[in-house]
Amino acid sequence: MQTKLASLTLAVSLLSSASALAGSGNAILPLWSANTSTGVSAGTNVYVTNITSHTLNIGMTFYAGDGTVTSCPVTVSNLTNSNTQIAAGVTAQISVTCSTLTTGIARIQWSNQSTDIDNVGLVAFGIRYINYTSAGVSSHTSVPVNGSNPF
Q1: What are the boundaries of the signal sequence (predicted)?
Q2: SS (HEC) of the chain
Q3: What is the pLDDT of residue 22?
């Protein structure tokens, strides 16, 4: 009898945990860098796609290598409601540039609105770019987020 009760308790706990996790998510961009000093134009563009059928709340925080939130300028396109929401099926671009060489990680987070419940909501990746203007050389590197899986 105790074995059945323990199994039932475990099953209820697992189901409760799963439902508590539904409706929001987050992932880490493992590397970003930016530098717009003389002769160099470098930055990171992050592309985030809403894979649900409804609008999601979204946030992204860029951290410098020392763990502090960076003060580098961040620009966005295709986000709504003061850049806090992403519409269904839309891909947004979030870019960071800095006047001096800065590297770090970024956290992307999302949540459902109202009573919508999704297990995953976004898929994302970053592109780091460097253009050496004096040499006419450029480089682009793809940076996967969450192993290129939805989160």
Answers
A1: 1-22
A2: CHHHHHHHHHHHHHHHHHHHHCCEEEEEEEEEEEECCCCEEEEEEEEEEECCCCCEEEEEEEEECCCCECCCCEEEECCECCCCEECCCCEEEEEECCCCCEEEEEEEEEECCCCCCCCCCEEEEEEEEEEECCCCEEEEEEEECHHHCCC
A3: 53
Domain 23-148 in this protein, CATH class? mainly beta
Integer Cα distance of 85 and 20 in angstroms: 22
Q: Contact at 8 Å (CB) between 128 and 44?
A: yes
Q: Supply the pLDDT for residue 6.
A: 39
Residues in the chain: 151
Model confidence over 5-20: pLDDT tens digits?
333 333 333 333 344 4
pLDDT digits 0-9 by tens, 84-138: 999 999 999 999 999 999 999 999 999 999 888 999 999 999 999 999 877 888 9
Find out whether 85 and 57 touch, Cβ atoms under 8 Å.
yes
- The Cα diameter of the chain in Å comes to 77
